[in-house]
């Protein structure tokens, strides 16, 4: 059993003001809210990192998106309906991280059937793309930044197909109903905060490369001011187009033609040198599907942990690391030994992820072996409580024949480049349905290319491919290929206890998504932090590299004793921006988001809990 908590925070302490950020109790249905009330200039909605109550819960990085999700739940929609509406709202307020020009992975627990299903909304490479697509005439990789800000990086968008699939499989609302409030938000606008301005500034050079992007996101030629209202009427019209005609308009209609024309001939601003054209064609959009896939699943300390299978590496890598950790009694150890074990397990799992995980339609991914307890035990034999092993380390050999402690035989493969952006939303309804959904356009700002008159950015997901094999004599699972889905690190996760919903979470952050989700699970299950504490705790990310990326607070708190064990650190400002929900005893739900990272997140519930509701951190696991 996890060690007992000495302090239990009362719900009444934590819910004060939480619903002001997430939407009031009894919020107006999404299709009846006022249509002509613009947000107040200079007054961005308040954010709350924690909310506890009933009726449903939503956690995102943005209060407008959280509010819209809660309105759907209050109006009778379920978790799938609310997740789609929330994602569409994030396409308005988080346009540099998500939108209909990108893709993502949707993990869903259906309370009626007790099953977890996933939707693969990952972008696909054009049929014209070959393994050498990102190599120059001399056979060398083209500069990464040059590849990003080009049509070459644009894959077939998967987000609209994901929304339709989610609604058809699990939802109760139509696409038109879920898009009504997001379209209104785009038309009315939202108040610019410091994070939005900073992200615009970071991408200013890229945005000025493309005329429609500069026109939209640099109004009047300048950065948007904090406190000003940012409106996107083009996106509002695009949402209404999809609401009226369906996503077929994006995959085979006029909008599809506009996307292809934009990718093939990017609209550079006057005086800007031509960027690389893209290979996307109308046939690529016509053939796109967002298939249902079996989730990854392992048992960890009596809990069932579900995640996203390849082409995402998130589910398998989190699961393998947990399997490596399970034999160790982390709940009875002090913080430093627990964190040492977490870092070592993460490095081992990343070595295997880099070597073996890619699109399963194009390469054999030994998923069953990567998730097996026997393989985890073989990998764990390198672990010592007294010293960190040398990194990068070789991958294991998931061949089904395992020994107590074999010599490393697998390849040593780098992780490749992957953008740090993306966004994650977590939704749970009163019936116990859960949506854990990570969506992205890859880099912050994606390719930088806005479809003229449509109000959304195109992705640069194809730069997630490995540009060139590190060792031509060994198979490389993540090289480009026609129709292939690039490997991802997105790790939307759902945790059940004997089939009943317990916890769901996820994060943005490129390859650090995996370590953010893994560390948060270890914090919640093994270190017995409540979910808000587990998310807020300082982070470190070991991805089979010589140095651990770590936040300053982590280095300050744990750096010295971990260095004594052989870990080396490089400081990064922040890692991830997690959100999560948890089902508590007595029918309560808890929504948690970041208190500070990425400007703070937004958690809300439909009905706030009253005084005396009880503790928020029941023990999880054995």
UniProtKB/TrEMBL annotation:
Gene3D superfamilies in the cross-refs: 1.10.246.130, 3.60.20.40
Annotated metabolic or biological route of this protein: Sulfur metabolism; glutathione metabolism
PTM entry text: Cleaved by autocatalysis into a large and a small subunit.
Full protein name: Glutathione hydrolase proenzyme
InterPro entries to which the protein is assigned, alphabetical: GGT_bact, GGT_lsub, GGT_peptidase, GGT_ssub_C, Ntn_hydrolases_N, TAT_signal
UniProt: L-glutamate binding residues: 122, 464, 488-489, 510
Keyword Transferase (UniProt): yes
Region of interest (Disordered), ranges: 388-428, 469-488, 599-622
Record's catalysed reaction(s): glutathione + H2O = L-cysteinylglycine + L-glutamate; an N-terminal (5-L-glutamyl)-[peptide] + an alpha-amino acid = 5-L-glutamyl amino acid + an N-terminal L-alpha-aminoacyl-[peptide]; an S-substituted glutathione + H2O = an S-substituted L-cysteinylglycine + L-glutamate
Keyword Transferase among record annotations: yes
Cleaved signal peptide residues: 1-20
Self-association and partners: This enzyme consists of two polypeptide chains, which are synthesized in precursor form from a single polypeptide.
BP term (GO), one: glutathione catabolic process
Keywords: Acyltransferase, Glutathione biosynthesis, Hydrolase, Signal, Transferase, Zymogen
Entry's EC annotation: 2.3.2.2, 3.4.19.13
